[in-house]
Amino acid sequence: IITVNAMLFPTSVANSLIAVGTDGLQERDRMVRAAVAIICELALKNPEVVAKRGGLSTILKSVIDCQLSRINEALITTVLHLLNHPCTRQYVRVDVELEQILAPFTDFHYRHNADTAEGQLKEDRESRFLSSRMAIVAAFRSWSGIINLCKVGNSGIQSLIGLLCIPNMEVRVSTETAPNICMKN
């Protein structure tokens, strides 16, 4: 359907794909990656349908869920592609969407899933730090990512730099090791 005419893509199917992409990991649904991949492709061909249904938030939530660098980069690149073009930029909420990738670093009480057990909280935080680092690196590889994360005012890069002054060692150690991840990529 997307290949033939993405403008005729049924909203009911888009709603279903976004629901699977948003809550599928918690439900252990095996169609999560396929649903998110279709949402990404639809976002490139018909961004209005995806944006109005909350699909961009689903994509960015999937970025924080994914520790595989190629998939993580493909997901964030979809949003960066929309930000790069003036006709599609309107669908990305300015101070909300892209800053979601910074949440594991900038929110001390960040929990990706409210159902995460206390015993697994440390492992979950470490995997979110890794996913967030990969997404930040991918964002800084494009002009649209640099411009959006470094904009004047309350920007994402200012928040990350501000973290280095905070006495919370767990976040500081994760932030200070980010250059090592950048060098590997």
Brief write-up:
The protein is mostly helical and 185 residues long. 65% of the residues lie in helices and 0% in strands. InterPro entries: Pianissimo_fam, Pianissimo_N.
Q: Largest beta sheet, briefly? A: none
Separate helix tally: 13
* Structural class determined from secondary elements: mainly alpha
- Unreliable segments (pLDDT under 50, ≥5 consecutive)? 179-185
Gap from first CA to last CA: 35 Å
Q: N-to-C SSE series?
A: HHHHHHHHHHHHH
The percent range for strand residues is under 5%
Protein name: Rapamycin-insensitive companion of mTOR N-terminal domain-containing protein
Pfam family, one: RICTOR_N
Domain Rapamycin-insensitive companion of mTOR N-terminal: 1-179
InterPro entries: Pianissimo_fam (IPR028268), Pianissimo_N (IPR028267)
Can you give a write-up of this model?
By secondary structure, this protein is an all-alpha fold. The protein is about 65% helix and about 0% strand. The longest helix has 19 residues, at about 120-140. It is globular, with a radius of gyration of 17 Å. The protein starts with a helix and ends with a helix. Residues about 180-185 have low confidence and may be disordered.
Task: Name some characteristics of this structure.
single chain; 185 residues; mainly alpha; 13 helices; disordered C terminus
Blueprint of the fold:
Elements: H1 2-5, H2 11-23, H3 32-45, H4 47-52, H5 55-65, H6 69-84, H7 86-89, H8 103-106, H9 121-139, H10 143-149, H11 156-163, H12 169-176, H13 178-184
Helix pairs in contact: 2-3, 2-5, 3-5, 3-6, 5-6, 6-9, 6-10
